[in-house]
Amino acid sequence: MKFLFIPLFMVMNIIGYAQHKESKIHDMNKEIQETHQKVDSSLKELDSLNEQLNNGYKKTMDSIYDHLETERNNRNLDMFLQMQKEREAKQKKEAYLRIGLGVLFLGILVFGLMRRRKKPANK
Question: pLDDT tens digit string along 73-88?
């Protein structure tokens, strides 16, 4: 009887543990897939939000750099215009000096020519 009881117990034990658990595993696989889908969709949303934030940051930085570049260009243009006005004022001053010297030498020439003509008239 012992020989019959031990194999019978082993067979019953194998049959008892050989239950069909595929439905639980299948349910767990479905839950895992749903969780993965939720995580994937969340990651896609995070990626799109991250991209939007990066685009907004880039646009903001571009506008800041554009503003700084515009200010720098304006300062350079103002400095250039100031230097150009100073140069024009210097050229104008030099032109007046040359005109004045020209008029002075013309006056000396006319005075010298008139004086020469008067000498022969005195003789």
Answer: 999 999 999 999 999 9
